[in-house]
Amino acid sequence: MRPYEATLVSILSSCTLLDVGVALYLGRQVHAYMAKNEELSVFMTTALIMFCGKMGCLVYASKVFDAMVIKQVCSWNAMISSLALNGREKQAFAMYEKMRAKGMQPNEITFVTVLSACVRAKLVDLGFQLFETMSHEFGHVAKMEHYGCVVDLLGRAGVPS
Predict the structure, then answer these.
(1) 34-38-44-47 Cα dihedral, nearest 10 degrees
(2) Cβ neighbours of residue 127 under 8 Å, at least 6 residues apart?
(3) 104 in helix, strand or coil?
(4) Domains detected in the chain
(5) Residue 38 class from Cβ within 10 Å (0-12 exposed, 13-18 middle, 19+ buried)?
(6) Angle (nearest 5°) at CA 50 between 107 and 146
(7) pTM for the whole structure
(8) Cα angle vertex 18, ends 73, 74, to 5°?
(9) DSSP element (H, E) containing 107
(10) Which letter does DSSP use for residue 114 in this model?
(11) Phi-psi category of residue 111: left, alpha or beta, with phi > 0 → left and psi -120 to 50 → alpha
(12) Which pLDDT belongs to residue 148?
């Protein structure tokens, strides 16, 4: 039996929960299988970007992202998140702006990723600006994850309550 696309994505995502050395080895094996036996879909390449980002392999994550012919919002979110996770907040914001310039509409997850980048960089004003943009410009209703980011942003920035 051949695994389904969802199975491969789940296995690749599960690898990030393992010890880094083991995770990298198994993740590479899964990627090699996918590349050999499957036409890489947007969801497979997005899972690969997230895997590489979580493992700290930003150069490879960027290569996978740049090689994608069709990029959906989930792909942009994965790259933004990968950059933010690895201390590249300015690059994460630049990627968000590039996404917007390409005409992509950010979704609720996009805002969680950029708000998380604001948290890591302690950029309170930008965080509030993005939080406002989320609802006023794009019509997204803030959810618990967004409010959590704002609370975390204020806490890490040392803003008194």
Answers:
(1) -10
(2) 115, 118, 119, 149, 150, 153
(3) coil
(4) 1-70 (no CATH), 73-161 (1.25.40)
(5) middle
(6) 35
(7) 0.89
(8) 5
(9) none
(10) H
(11) alpha
(12) 95
What the block records as the tokens of 99 is: 């996404």
Tell me how far apart the alpha carbons of residues 130 and 126 are, in angstroms, rounded to a whole number: 6
Residues of the chain with pLDDT under 50: none
What b-and-e string marks burial along 77-99, b requiring 16 or more CB atoms within 10 Å of the CB? bbbbbbbbbbebbebbbebbeeb
Sign of the C-alpha dihedral, residues 99, 105, 109, 115? positive
User: DSSP string of 15-77?
Assistant: HTTS-HHHHHHHHHHHHHHHHHHSPPPHHHHHHHHHHHHHTT-HHHHHHHHHH-SS--HHHHH
- How long a stretch of residues is the chain? 161
Amino acid 160: pLDDT: 64
